[in-house]
Amino acid sequence: MKTVFETKRIRYVELSELLISDYLRMVNDIENVGRLIGRTEPVTEEAEREWVRGKLEEKASIFSMIDKESGVFIGNIELMDVHDGGGELGIAITADQQERGYGTEAIPAILQYGVNVCGLHRIFLKAYPFNVRAIHVYEKCGFREYDRTADDIFMEIRPPFPAC
């Protein structure tokens, strides 16, 4: 797996079919991860393989996060729908790696990647109102709410980015 960039504890690698079992374990954990990324039904191995191949083919800005010390899969982080100087942040962390500060470490890294590599001047995201833990991390990293519906909270950030 090719490392694209690193932070203190995390290697950010290209998506890989070698990690499909890790991806499936994460997204199919509906209670702890899946519901937080809009999944209500399990994903099949075939569907996940197609998803990985599609992301690789489109050269998407999505990275798997690997703990540098243990080599354990942490989750994925992505800049989606990149156009007109903006992109949407998506992050999913496996249940067993949550509450270890990985999101707080990974978000500033992907923000810098978005600005320096993708040329973004606005990064936005959508969070479920019940995902209080994630909203706290986003706010800690400088995201501010700009809209809200009954189902979603919309947040954004523009450079220069504060330190988390």
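Above is the first protein from milestone M3; the second protein from the same milestone is given next.
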Amino acid sequence: MELIYSTGGREKYFKSNVVGDCVCRAIANATGMDYKQVYDLINSYAKKEHLSKRKKKKSNARNGVTKDTIWRILTDLGWKWIPTMLIGSGCQVHLNEKELPDGTLIVSVSKHLTCVKNRKLYDTYDCSRGGTRCVYGYYIKERS
């Protein structure tokens, strides 16, 4: 899969390259929204999260976002979750151009979220592991 290096516009606002902002980058790359606008949106949703015994800290656009918060943000923006891996099913879809549909996708892989546009990977590194990385599912923009 061809890699298009993209920070989603992070360099306009932050200098550091060592951050856990994959959710922010993926959403900015997929939607065309400004990085800072997505950053602030994620943090506003994170403020509404509830802490529990299992969930000790809130999400943060710079250091990681929970799956529930990602789902809330993207469904509110009009994206639909398409699961590609179910419990006990094993890996059915991999992060490569032959197994993903055309269009713009926000793809969930282990501990990472990335953007694929027309079968090209938009990220800061090649997270496909040579096309063998398992895709848990992806978000696709619902037609209005």
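Note on the second protein: Residues 3-141 form one domain.
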